[in-house]
Design brief:
The structure is a homodimer of 699-residue chains. Chain A is α/β, with parallel strands linked by helices and 699 residues long. Chain A contains 30 helices and 19 strands. In chain A, β8 (172-178), α6 (186-198) and β9 form a beta-alpha-beta unit. The longest helix of chain A has 23 residues, at 627-649. Chain A is globular and about 80 Å long. The first copy, chain A, starts with a helix and ends in a 10-residue tail after the last helix. At the A-B interface, α1, α2, α3, β6 and α19 of A face α1, α2, α3, β6 and α19 of B.
């Protein structure tokens, strides 16, 4: 049993402490002895309160468990699965003998509310498992935990015996997807909602309008979607389908309709509501643009009142997001009537005008029974305290809002499109930084956070890879106790979860090989394809907003996203592991020869990779642009191999050598083709380690 | 332009002659100078006859071209795609300036018929392309050819200038999928129909009933699907949807309802039609079983008449498959009433009784306006000549049928489940062997062939990989001129097509890594996962029907298909390339040191791969069973490296060494875990080459 347990309990092969392969890590875990076998006889009984949603969750659970394991359930194979489901539906199935018994206390709210009980207790013993929860929300979370526990062992599939008492740290754990800049077909949203369920997120924030597209059917104002979407919008029927899909997975859907800025696409069909002379056209570029609603025009509020009324009926959630970010004020400044209004009403400036707009908008939202959510620009002290501030410009605004009595959620630090590492996102805590010294009642106003997937450089093909697996690290930050901060453990569990997410249909891994194949072309030789993979495996797109700055031609919504920069992961696993191994090697005074040889072999591969890339570049324009990157990788490999030779032999290069190499590495650090070579840090450390003052150099 | 052309025209990196990257290879190809750029401005005009199906095909074509290239069509991005489609729909769009102009002569038949005109001419020039076809069927084939022509070049995407005149060799080019033994969800069938369209197959043969399942809703006899399917069946609405889907792609749908044998699942709900005492239960095992309809019972014909009537209305195709294979006669032999009937009617034996049954059944099929198709067991001279014989037991029956005046299609040699190589399938020609000496009018009765995917060891997860890419080789055999037989060219083009098929959603490549990940488990170290991949890449499942014979416990429909044997490809690319390289190396008298070093490096990898597998086997029962295979691979590697050392150094081992190694290799040739080590042949050749009598040994 020890062997089995070690297989189940070790999160990975990176030598960190034994820990359950669960992500997010539960609040309380107690390992027990033994394990519960999961085989074709696996059965589930539902006791206590039940409902159709919970039964569907159990059906989904069984399907996912079958996918993960490849098992064929015996009774299903024998044609009695339906009977069992029917039994479960009646809530009367006998628990005796069921492998997993679920007991739920009572229903959750008819419309999922912020702060509902999501807790659960999962007890796995060698003879059976029990999942207990107050509501179906907790039960569904517990089922996901169980799925993560199941692993292959020397004797079959099994879940380790364990007692888990779990509940979320924050009640608002969201993912925002921008359907405005690039339209995201419904199936893509659905599989991402599956992914959210897997990591226990509970708010899908749907960014539905942008300068580049108005993405939802309005029956009251059909010119919104007809003229503002290029034909790419969600019908109201699809929206209802998605809301139901999300509710089935314990996930609220908060729609965002961004006003008064980011609103070009609205104004294409309704130019009379804009602050400029019009006409307006759907924006094709990225950035901050001038078009804005006219806050001085009563028609604007009449329109918004009717529109919000329509959408408030469609979206059952209590929260309604109005955007409010990045109004550049240019149309307002250029409009004499608006400037006169500002003066006449003592509003001081554009910010005052936006505050005026927000106040009137908030009244409309409230009238339709909702609480308003806005980006942190909407924060002004005189708004009612039931609004929620979504902080994106920094943690200060979150703390400021809490101090003023507003609730808030953090997105600053959780922008998935900026290409940060999972570790960097993971280190961002909603109640740290400016929020750390808050009083308890202020602290309680921090509801959680949201990962944001803005879609300038993201389309149907690569969006999953820009969200996953890094989003799992953010999900853990928002669910698990604040004390859960071990980065090595996080990565090991995230790797495991990333593999599991594929069974849900997420394409964050599969897209990669396909895109590289397209880039290499069909006449690529196998060794050329392999070389492209070696290169692509160690580069990342430039970070933050550098991609705009480095673009040769201004990118638009018509720009093809088929380049190497669009294909590679936002975080390179290979480079991360290399850099980790360098740290380990140097920390061990460069005496670990196994690690040393592994590093050297890796560096040789990089050093010798370029000829195949050069040859491939003769055939493919998509490879041509990464030739300088490939040459830099060769340089990196060459310098690294030299450094390793010094370190392995225990000899020292002259100090000038280190300086020369460091200068070359500084050159290599400059992006090419919007790509960064991620093993650079590790190679620099190896070069540094050759110095006589270091433990390695003195060897 | 030469560089661009060479990129487009070379089928691969294997050094064979320059050839278009098109599969199946067209009847006539003439290369021209230059190439047609495919960029965001790419436009399509439809002239001449048009219809909604053709417009949908053009829309699909544009989508697939966008997927293949990652391009964003300019006008679509600008929101005018719909206008263009509307124009195309009216058939009036101006052709001037369109990148691709399609001209279609007239409609095809309302219900697709055998032998309709499927020809097309595709002319690609540097300034535009023209696709001309008599019917939409030909136009759709031409669109697929165009998609295959487009490739990445140093200057962007392009199609080489070329003139293609193309038409199929055979009018019946089919793929059969067995939905009986393992139910195949509709989406899986759809993507396989997409694959069929890509390689110009035109008949989907849908095996809908088996001992293990009756898979279609019958409104007349609901106990068929209710009691015979475990709940896994297609509704009639789904069937209509699939037929429409197939018609949109130029594919006929021929249903098969297998009688009088293979019929257990029918008899579960209607035991009174069986020849045994009943009751019947859905069969869980694989093989040939006793249950059979009672041909002496008039109720049988009344039932079949009504059932065929219902299905004949549902399936518009003129052909109706009645199975007729593998009646073991045991129920008939054990039934005194049936034996008395045989005697009373002078039917001689069970075969005579089946012929009697077939004759009555054929009359029923004909009455409902259809032509009967049956497996070759139904062949008896006194049946009407409009029936079609599907030859599965050998080519002789096809020739015999043709001589007797029957039409026939070949499936012997095209059984995808037997695990043959693409080359072996490719070598099977419907008019070779026994059919070669036929007279022209007999020869004309050979309509083509069908690949067959029987599903004992195939489920939703791995079915695509069992069909593709090998099915493309069969598709080429049935479409291209008989003279097209270059195996190296076939493999190079099949590799390219295999990559392209992924853009259609086929999972024949992506499933592999996921299944291996499941087998390795989440606690596998990266190097252990890599080792499993090295091993899995060079093994294939045992061939033909050996899997049953080697099973430790009898497999059933409840057996999990999650083992290494279920994950690995039916044809190992890695082993094939290794064996090809050995041939090349030996043919060059072992003087090609580059090839020699590549072989040696590969062999070293195999020799040293086992420790990681042994370690992984400590964690996963799914790996444990392949440890002997891994040890054999190590042996293979060790012997191969020794042989290479002799060959590279030009020294000779003692003859005893060769004998000893050959004995060991004979041992290695025995399957373990139902797997074969495919590089064995190459290693044996290297060992042989060390002999003094060979060019290598004498070096």
């Amino acid at each position: 049993m020890v062997a089995m347990l070690s297989g189940l309990l070790l999160a990975g092969a990176h030598g960190q402490q034994a820990v359950l392969n669960v992500m997010p890590l539960p609040a309380n875990v107690q390992a027990r002895d033994g394990a519960l076998t999961v085989d074709a006889n696996f059965s589930v009984a539902v006791t206590g309160y039940s409902e159709a949603r919970l039964e569907r969750a159990v059906t989904r659970f069984r399907r996912e468990l079958a996918r993960q394991t490849g098992l064929v359930w015996k009774r299903e194979a024998l044609g009695v699965a339906k009977t069992e489901t029917a039994k479960a539906a009646s809530g009367t199935s006998a628990t005796s003998g069921a492998t997993l018994t679920i007991h739920t206390g009572h229903a959750s709210a008819a419309i999922q509310e912020l702060g509902e009980d999501e807790s659960y207790t999962l007890e796995v013993t060698p003879v059976g498992a029990t999942l207990t929860a107050e509501t179906p929300l907790g039960a569904m979370h517990g089922l996901q935990t169980f799925l993560q526990l199941v692993a292959v062992t020397p004797d079959g599939f099994a879940a380790p015996a364990v007692t888990i008492q779990d509940k979320p740290r924050f009640p608002w754990r969201g993912l925002m997807i921008d359907s405005g800049r690039h339209f995201m077909p419904l199936e893509i949203l659905k599989r991402n909602i599956d992914g959210m369920e897997a990591v226990k997120m509970n708010v899908f924030h749907w960014h539905l309008s942008e300068n580049q597209g108005f993405r939802i059917e309005s029956k009251k104002f059909p010119r919104l979607h007809e003229m503002g979407s290029d034909g790419f919008y969600y019908t109201q029927e699809e929206v209802r389908e998605l809301i139901e899909y999300a509710r089935d997975r314990g996930i609220r859907v908060v729609p965002e309709f961004d006003v008064p800025g980011h609103s070009t696409a609205w104004l294409v069909g309704y130019p009379e509501l804009g602050s400029g002379p019009g006409p307006y056209e759907i924006e094709r570029k990225w950035g901050i643009f001038d078009p804005a609603f006219d806050p001085t025009n009563e028609k604007t509020y009449k329109f918004l009142n009717e529109f919000v009324g329509e959408m408030a009926k469609l979206f059952p959630d209590h929260f309604f997001h109005v955007g409010g970010d990045e109004v550049n004020g240019k149309e307002w400044d250029a409009n004499a009537k608006i400037q006169a209004f500002i003066k006449a009403n003592g509003l001081k400036n554009d910010a005052g005008l936006q505050a005026y707009f927000n106040k009137k908008l908030q009244a409309i939202i409230a009238k339709h029974g909702k609480s308003m959510v806005g980006w942190d620009e909407v924060l002004t002290p005189d708004l009612p305290k039931d609004i929620v501030i979504q902080s994106w410009r920094g943690q200060d605004s979150l703390a400021a809002a809490a101090k003023q009595g507003f609730r808030g959620i953090l997105s600053s630090g959780y922008y998935l499109d900026l290409g940060w590492s999972a570790a960097r996102h993971y280190a961002v805590d909603p109640t740290s930084g400016a929020a750390a010294p808050l009083a308890p009642e202020e602290n309680a106003r921090i509801l959680g956070g949201e990962a944001c997937m803005w879609s300038e450089y993201v389309n149907s093909e690569n969006v999953d890879s820009r969200i996953w697996p890094r989003n799992a690290a953010i999900a853990e930050r928002l669910w698990s106790p604040q004390s859960v901060t071990d980065v090595a453990s996080m990565y090991a569990r995230m790797d495991a979860e990333s593999a599991r997410l594929e069974w849900l249909g997420l394409t964050h891994r599969t897209y990669y090989r396909q895109m590289l194949q397209r880039i290499a072309g069909r006449s690529a030789a196998p060794q050329e394809e392999a070389a492209l993979r070696v290169l692509a495996d160690v580069v990342e797109p430039v970070k933050d907003y550098a991609r705009e700055q480095l673009a040769a031609t201004e990118p638009t919504s018509g720009t093809s996203l088929n380049r190497v920069v669009d294909a590679v992961a936002l975080e390179s696993d290979t480079a991360r592991r290399f850099n980790e191994l360098v740290d380990k090697y140097v920390a061990a005074s460069c005496k670990d020869d196994d690690a040393g040889n592994e590093l050297r072999a890796q560096l040789i591969r990089w050093r010798d990779n370029d000829p195949a890339i050069e040859s491939l570049a003769q055939k493919s324009f998509l490879v041509k642009e990464v030739v300088p990157v490939s040459q830099d990788l060769a340089t990196l490999g060459k310098i690294g191999v030299f450094a390793m030779d010094y370190l392995i032999l225990g000899s020292q290069p002259p100090a000038a050598w280190r300086n020369d190499q460091s200068a070359v590495l500084t050159d290599v650090s400059k992006p090419n083709a919007q790509l960064l070579l991620m093993p650079l840090a590790g190679v620099q450390k190896l070069v540094n380690a050759t110095g006589g003052a270091t433990a390695c150099g003195a060897k």
